[in-house]
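User: Round two. Same drill as before: sequence, then structure, for each protein.

Assistant: Same drill it is. First protein:
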Amino acid sequence: MSVVKINAITVPKDKQERFEERFRGRAGAVESTPGFEWFELLRPLEGTDQYLVYTRWSSQEAYEAWQSSQDFDRAHDGGGDTLASAAPHSAHVWTYEVLEYAGPKANQEKQV
């Protein structure tokens, strides 16, 4: 079964735009990493100032290989001075195993 990594990052309101800019400028190397299945950046709408970075992997080993790669280091270097981290030292990583999942049911009837 797949493994999900959720990085919960607290970002103060005045730094949220910079934080999102940093993600828009990401290199995207994770998408071609063996074992990578999914990525989502979730913006809080109410009740919290924590963003969630959701990634899904085919195995814990696939995630660990990504985490120890040079691409991971480049993706997490803060973007240099122009895109410095908006929320240093405010992240927590949660790990879950996917037990069940579902997607939309395919439409069995032809549309005319």
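Second protein:
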Amino acid sequence: MGDCRPLGFLIGLPFALVAVVLSLVGLIIWVLGSILSCLCPCCICCAGIANFAMDLVKLPVKVIRWFIEKFPC
């Protein structure tokens, strides 16, 4: 079956653009967290920060999929 939900994609696009900006912030946080965890492996909080940053990086895809699923064909 082909999914034809362009309306959900178009409405979700501005929110995805905001999510892209957040993912860039997440990328910077992830790089800093990775460097800190390599320099001081005893800092377990740096791993948590890096995992949170990875969730921010995946956010645009999640937002677009969520909007596309909300609108019928």
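The CA atoms of residues 16 and 70 lie 15 Å apart.

User: Perfect.
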